[in-house]
């Protein structure tokens, strides 16, 4: 999940929306495995644009499971609270959570969390909600650790593999998503280690490469490719603080060559856009240049910046439509691998432990100013939401689905949370904010190609 406003500064309110008639959605058809895999080099890869598959990706993320996020499971972090009025002393990420507990306690608590947060029943529920894919974040530390890392290591892989099996049993596809790199690729809490940006230090990069090579090798084998239809090299590398040439050559291209040349495999490689503008990747690893099977992942939020939060609702819809209009002719197939129903940043810790919310003007990070837009009171009590707010949340979500389905589809952030409504697919569906079925629409589709 994006916790930075840097990218948002780059997303101007562009594009326009004009009404088109309802009923142009393809209905979500039942699919079985295997039949949409295509031969190449006598091997197989998933053909996202094929006429047989015939539906966009309609996915959901399994956030806060194998990589902790304080806002998704605050109860794990609240036990450290010392003071009602301050978050001081509360670990801010999984690194500090495991460091605070020590290896044994951390392993005990995390095992309990991994066993209970996602079970086979969840994959069945996800299928019955109409989704066709789950994106599963996992950190490098599941496989390898740096010498002074406090992380619990070596236990997560079996949960990932179980989830892939459950997905397969339910006819769901999977993206395996390396969500945290050694040293952190973005400084977000969801990378495992907040406020660190040392992904490209040589030793760290070696460790991360070793892990992603392992994942590429494992999940491109025949036994997985029917279900795992993409491996994401790294989630949200923070372009503006990274060396972009190094990201492209020493990481994206290096892994492409490792998979295609060294291993000779056909799995789809997913690259995140590194918070660059849409179309930035149009001339990198393209089919024209002889590369293939590279899919670009764009993430979209409008709540990590005060001015975006304060934009009119109509402007927010227009921006969402423009995302869809702009991706239609990107050279790579692309999917919105994260986005949300959220129109506020009121959910506790969604900006990180201790930072509070821009929406009600209480934001506290780096003395960055925020101003009052509205109240965050009772944010997690749906019955207290005005009808207007309920309608807007649904309308915003529908608009994004329409926009992203102009190309390869979407993956909602996230499947479940302990307390949040705006970030929780289960609660959104239960409360009639997430369309059920997923192609049901209450509002006209304003997003035109
Ligand atoms: C990183 O890997 C390269 C290639 O294997 C090796 O030559 C180099 O010494 C490694 N660097 C560190 C700091 O581990
Ligand atoms: C927030 O939006 C309102 C309505 O468009 C506008 O009047 C106000 O100036 C904005 N506030 C700030 C601080 O930009
Ligand atoms: C994509 O389409 C837009 C609008 O028609 C056009 O301005 C732009 O040049 C196109 N870009 C590419 C890379 O084809």
Automatic annotation (TrEMBL):
It comes from the Eukaryota. Residues 1-17 form the signal peptide. Pfam families: Cellulase (PF00150). SUPFAM superfamilies: (Trans)glycosidases. The keyword Signal applies. One of its GO terms (biological process) is glucan catabolic process. GO terms for molecular function: glucan exo-1,3-beta-glucosidase activity. It is found in: Secreted. It catalyses: Successive hydrolysis of beta-D-glucose units from the non-reducing ends of (1->3)-beta-D-glucans, releasing alpha-glucose. GO terms for cellular component: cell surface; extracellular region; fungal-type cell wall. The keyword Cell division does not apply. Residues 108-273 form the Glycoside hydrolase family domain. Keywords: Cell wall biogenesis/degradation, Glycosidase, Hydrolase, Secreted, Signal. PROSITE patterns: GLYCOSYL_HYDROL_F5. Its EC number is 3.2.1.58. PANTHER family: GLUCAN 1,3-BETA-GLUCOSIDASE I_II-RELATED, GLUCAN ENDO-1,6-BETA-GLUCOSIDASE B. Belongs to the glycosyl hydrolase 5 (cellulase A) family. This is glucan 1,3-beta-glucosidase.
